[in-house]
Structures are given as structure tokens and as C-alpha cells.
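Comment thread on ticket #2218

A.B. wrote:
> Attaching the input chain for the structure job we discussed in standup.
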Amino acid sequence: MERQHWPTRLWLVRHGQSQGNVARDEAHEAGHLVIDLDWRDVDVPLSDLGQRQAEATGRWFAALPEDQRPEVLLSSPYVRARQTAEAICKGGGLAGGAKSTVLDERLREREFGVFDGLTAIGIREKYPDEAAHRAKMGKFYHRPPGGESWADVILRLRSAMNSIALQHENRRVMIVCHQVVVLCLRYILEELTEAQILAIDRQAEILNCGICAYDFSVDRKGLCIPQLALWNHGAPMEKEGAPKTSAPDAMAGSR
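C.D. wrote:
> Ran it. Output below, let me know if you need it in another format.
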């Protein structure tokens, strides 16, 4: 009988609202070409609201029974994800009162290349040929110069999932990451097609601090099949009255 190595549960949590999300919304509303931010994308912190969302998420996880809370916490190294992970730890969201976070660069935000820091209007104005090429190729396969396509992100996430399966078998694992990363992990775990994951993407933005969960059960052949148990869950914000936000990725006009 074939044996597969998986966690018992995998939690996926998008970071809280970032200052980049706020700046992006302001730039789009004003019709600007460029998003007004002085940070590198990796250094963009949470907004005040994002910090509240992260703290509420930590308390939500802390309210779960001990044997249901995550045991292992992995995070993108980007500041907004790290701050979210730290708030969850401080809020008692991990089993056994664990406080440590493992940073994994494979969980980082998609790299936007020359599109970095531009609004959708800015991309069309500054790089009309690339914008046309992207419209033809679709965002799943289009790679902006110096950046990544969704398919590129999926390639590194497959490597990350292999590491998680080998190192954290039969444990409850949480990943704190980014909107596109959550969607690409869903693509991997459910063995979806390009059309299927883009249809899910069109349904709704991933909430800031939105929670997703997968359970892994053994089928008749002894194989573990990931089962989606929770999707884009905003309970922490609903419970504590922190406003829900779901801004697209901050540093480019489109995902």
C-alpha cells in the first residue's frame, strides 16, 4: 500500500490589511499611475486595521480546543505576513503556547517585476505591449519582465509542500502568506485546472486574515486526499467587529 506523508490539518491564512493595500486603493481611486509607497514590497507593514485583524485572528485560534490549534507555524518572510504570524502567536493561537514562526521564502508574495508599484492604468500607460501580451496570455501564465507568473509561484510552492509533508507529517500546520499564494496552494492541493482556479479567483477576493483549512484523510487505497474544510472564513473579524477588507495585492495593479 502506497504511503503518503501529510499534515493532519493545514491552515492557510492571508496576512492582515497592509499599508500597501491602503495605498493601492487610494491610487486607483485617484487615477494615479503609481502607488505611493516608499517601501520595497517585502518591507510593507500592516496597517493599524491590519494589526487589529491579525490580533483578532490570534484570539480566534486561541479559542479553539487545544487539540485543534495549529502546532507548527510557517510564514512568508514579508513583513506584513510576519507581523500577522507574530500576532497569532502572541494571541495564543498555537497549541502548547508555542511562540516560534518558521520563515520560508518559498511562501513569499508573487514578484511583479516591472509592474511593481504600478496601478492597472500605470501598467497600460508605461508597458502597453506587455499589457496586451498579458491580456492574451492570461495572468496564470503571463510573466512580467523580472517577475513571476502564477505558474512560477506554483512551482516553488510544490517544493514548499514537499518539505511540509516530510517535516510535519501528522501535525497541524498553519501557513501565513498572501492572496495569490493561498489560491495557488488550493490549485495544488485540489489538482485544479487553470480555468477552475481562475473561476474561484473571480468569485471573491481573499479576505485579509481570511482563513482556509484542509483535512487529510486516508482513502480505500491508503492515499491521503486533501479535503477543503473551510474557505475564506472571516469569523475573527465578524466576532470582534473589526471591518473585513479584501484588497487585491498591494504592489501592482493586478494579480
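A.B. wrote:
> Thanks. Noting for the ticket: The longest helix spans residues 150-167.
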